[in-house]
Each structure stands twice: as structure tokens, then as C-alpha cells.
Input
Amino acid sequence: MQIEDLLLKEDWSVIESLLPEGWQGKCKELKAYQLNRAFDGPGDLLRTLLIHCAQGHSFRVTAALAEEGGVAILSDVALNKRLRLGRDWLQWLSNGVAQKWFPREVTGDCAATLCVKVADATTVQEPGSKGTSWRIHYSLELSSLRCNEITITGKERGESFKNFAVQEGDLWIGDRTYAKPPGIDHVISHGGDVLVRTGWNSLQLCDEQGQKFHLLGQLRHLRLHEVGDWPVFIAHDKDLIAGRICAVRKSVSAANRERKRILKESSKKGRKTKPETLEAAGYTFVFTTVDQSIPAETVLTIYRARWQIELTFKRFKSLLGLGHLHNKNPESAKAWLYGKLLSACLIEALAVVSDRFFPWGYPLGKKTPLMEKHLEGDRPHVPILPTSHNAREQSPLTT
Output
């Protein structure tokens, strides 16, 4: 065995250690490993799929690299079929890695400790298409900035908290798109709370007497640095959802920037801007269902952290090329997206593992199968200097 092969096997064993328990058996259970003549096992199948998804190679180049690296021998057409068959497995792996390495933190004896989660979505286009083809719904846990849940839907399914699993004690943050009664009710009915940005007329607000709550009228009384906090209710079906409006007046410069942006966007779309919209641009206000035990200043401070998920999507699109599909087949496209998301989760998991770095390359007291093989005398001769200065720079996916 060459030193380069040894290094690549060790690197790939690190990737395998990041995967959830039972990932090989799940591959067969979800029928991703039906046609196995080209691969020695689920590991080689995953390795080949990651060459295509993570490294961005075409099916033909991926097949050539897999054959050159001794991973698999198959055609580009056969690889496309394996990708479609592996869609559910890649989805399971993506969420499995997220749950394994970014678990929900529970403090003390209370299992319902407040856990802040941020929800957002981004769109992906098919080749040659100017519109939305797929929508990726993504949530992260604010305390660790790690992925919490991933779902891919068609363009017909809009952004909503209903796309996510809610646990008791969760506090879900969303932008204006998530300020809709059905999604808010979904969170409340599962024991969670919401914190959403809203427009001046997005929600039908009423006061404790059931009268219409005039939001702009209340905002006009705010002075600079003063924080407003008003109890309100929103109607959903025949019920009322209790909450609060927390607001603060913007500085003159911040308000002018927002109004300029609104006017520019309206001009581009040929729409007329309402005076109320320009007036509301002078304030930042959110709707939340958390009680008065959390002050309005804290509520607004928590909402400020929502921009972290915007950075996550920027990384996905700039580093992993998530913005545009390379395949028009719906099944292949969805499987490719899950492969991309699995790559993103593995990168984040590697960042977590890096905190446990050992200069000698492994934790004491734990032996990997590869180490056991070396200890049994099957270890190849390793020269003092590597035979290739680029040995460690090679990808663990290919030779």
C-alpha cells in the first residue's frame, strides 16, 4: 500500500466517523444500494456521490475519477441512476449528521429550556430557468449556529413555520414572510413561541377589547431610544393568538436608507408606494408570543441575530454552488440538492471535530479499524519523508 493510499483511507475514515449510526444499513433499507455490482459497499457509493455533489464534477468526470481512484467502475448514465435511487438516503444522512453533531442543548432539569431557532428559505433554479424550481427550507439553532433541519419542496410550497418540526420550549425566529397566522399557530400548538418581523398591515391586530389595534398610531408616540411594548391579539380561524408588539424608532439615517430602498424596489416593479409604508420604514417592530418575563429590549436584541442564517445561505451558494442546478430531471435534481446539503453538514461537523484536535491524529484510548490493522503487523513501510509533498492535499474522495 502506498503512503498516498494510506493517507486517503485515513481521511475517508474521518468522514465516515461523522455519519450517523446505522448509515450503511439505512442505505440498503432505503433501497439506495439495489444495484451493487459497481461498488463494494455503501461507503464506496457515498464516496462516489460526494465526488459529484460536493466537488461539483459532472457525471462523466465523476465516473472517471471514481474508476481512477479504485472506488467504482460505472458509466455516467449508471451514476445518474444511482443518484436518483440515493435521494432518500442522502436526505436521511443530511438530517442525521445535523442531529448527531449539533444536538439541542438542554440545561438543568427542565427539558423545555428555551431554544432559539431561526428559519428561512432560499430558491434554486433549473438550468436556463429564470424562475424558482425548488425551495430549500433551512433552520439553525442560534446558540451553536449549526443546522437544525433541512427540507426541500417544490416552488408551490411557500415559506412557513409549518415546514419545520417544533419542540416544546422552542423560540422560532422568522422574517416578514413567516408572519402568517397558520404558521404561528403551528408553533404555538406544539408548545413553542415565535418572534417575527411584521409589516404595518401584515397581521390583523386587535387589542384586549377586541378593537382594531392601530399600530402606526402607537409607533408615532415613540421617541428615539424608547422601546414600545404593547399586548395584542391576532385572529386565526375562530381563535385569537395572544402576543406582543415590540418596537423601536430608527435613527434618521437608518430610516432614510430603508425608505430609499423601498422606493427603488417599487420603481423597479412599477408599483406605487403607500405613505403608510414609508412612515413604517422609520421603525423596527416585531410580533412575539413570549411573555413579559423577557423584556422588549431583549426581544429586539434576539431578533438582531436572524442575519446569521442569511450568512449561511451565502456560504452555501458561494462555496458549494447551491444556487443553480446542473440537472433538469426532478428526481436527480432533488437528490443532488440533498447531496449538497449533506456536504454542508459534513463541513460544519468537521468544524466541531476540529475543536477536539489531537497533534498525533487520534484520541488516546480509541482504536479505529485501520489502526487495529496496523497494530497487527499489516502496516506498510512508511518512509521518513512522504513520497509526495502533495499527499495531504489530495481529496479524501478520490486519489
